Amino acid sequence: MSTETAAAAAEVVAPPPAGWEEARSRVYAVGLAAALPAVSRPLADADGHTLAEPLTPRTDLPAFPTSSVDGWAVRGDGPWQVVGRVLAGHTPPPLEADGSTVEIATGAMVPEGATAILRIEESTRTADGRVAGTPRPAPEWREPGEEAYAGEELLPAGTPVDPAVLGLAASCGHDTLRVRRRPRAALLVFGDELLTSGPPGAGRVRDALGPSVPAWLRRYGCQVRPADVVGPVADTLPAHVAALRAALADADLVCTTGGTMHGPVDHLHPTLEALGADYVVNTVAVRPGFPMLLARLVDDDGRVRFVAGLPGNPQSAVVALVSLVAPLLAGLQGRPMPVLPQVTLAEPVTGRGDHTHLALVRWDRVAGTAHPVRHVGSAMLRGLAGADGFAVIRPGTTGAAGDRVPVVPLPLTPGERAW
């Protein structure tokens, strides 16, 4: 490094870090302000998207009186003369005469004029072929609107679309849904010291973030193609600028790994400056995970894109994902800011002074307790592989056994509403 370069690096003054909770709120707000446009998707293609408008039924649910049992739809007192049969999917004629009945299947439309339904197992046949029995006093059919009325809001905008939502939408009569499209994401891996195959050695380490970060992003609702993962990018400023400019051409969010400091081969900050980005958050007072950042670029046409600078240490990178990327993506998809669940610490967890401590834990959801795990250094992934989330130990505090603290769940399966 030249004397001039060293002097310039020494003059870099890092901004004061944002508080962890403040940073989460800030990135969620900018994400929500840049929420992705609504599109129409057929039900078969809507899973994993987010409702852009409330889900309402197109008709009452059920739309007509529906038999809850197999049996006999009867009119008046019995015994009853059988005049027909009603199966699901058909519109029956009215029962016009007292003392008449039609056999009816579960789910079939109850004919007009029916006064009760007699269960098949509680009926008998008389010698002359009529039906006898005593109907139960409670109606054995579902009334129109029993589940919902036409136009009633069943789910608000911002609800993630999952199989249950798809089934409900179909029952409401929808063929398509208005949803926010899934964010497109890319990953740039920085670091000449990284290997992309084989065991580490000879001063080089295996890249653990190239394979894992896209999987985390998909679990938060992003589209990430294999071609969207690029690296290792050469440790030069021109290479960084070219790679980030190319990634931003298609992506709503580009994550980078490493280069968030101001060292001799840390080119992320100069790259962001060269591309005209502005910082939403530049460093967060959280351990592990320091430093991390989120920057925003706005095109002349108003299109907004984001760059999330993740630290190079693997566990710190995941802390940055749950701290900055997850709330940003919630906003971009029009989802509400999640409320973190509370857990009871089963063992003590140390604090980190003026920084928030995100401590890896196993979460016993039955007992509501969190158990700290081992092997949790910034560069380690062993503890993360056995954890369910991060217990939040606020600045200036420590976590004692029995304390109630927030927990940030990890999205451990695709589509899981973990956070």
Main pleated sheet: 6 strands, mixed
- Give the radius of gyration: 30 Å
CATH class division of the largest domain: Alpha Beta
CATH evolutionary superfamily of the largest domain: MoaB/Mog-like domain
**What does the average pLDDT come to?**
91
Tell me the number of strands: 26
The percent of residues in helical segments reads 10-25%
Shape assignment? elongated
Quickly count the helices.
8
In which order are the strands of the major sheet placed?
Answer: 16-13-17-21-20-18
- CATH architecture classification name of the largest domain: 3-Layer(aba) Sandwich
Q: Report the structural category.
A: alpha/beta
The rounded distance between the terminal residues' Cα atoms is: 44 Å
The CATH topology assignment of the largest domain is Molybdenum Cofactor Biosythetic Enzyme, Chain A
Low-confidence stretches: 1-11, 415-419
Number of domains: 4
What percent of residues are in strands? 25-35%
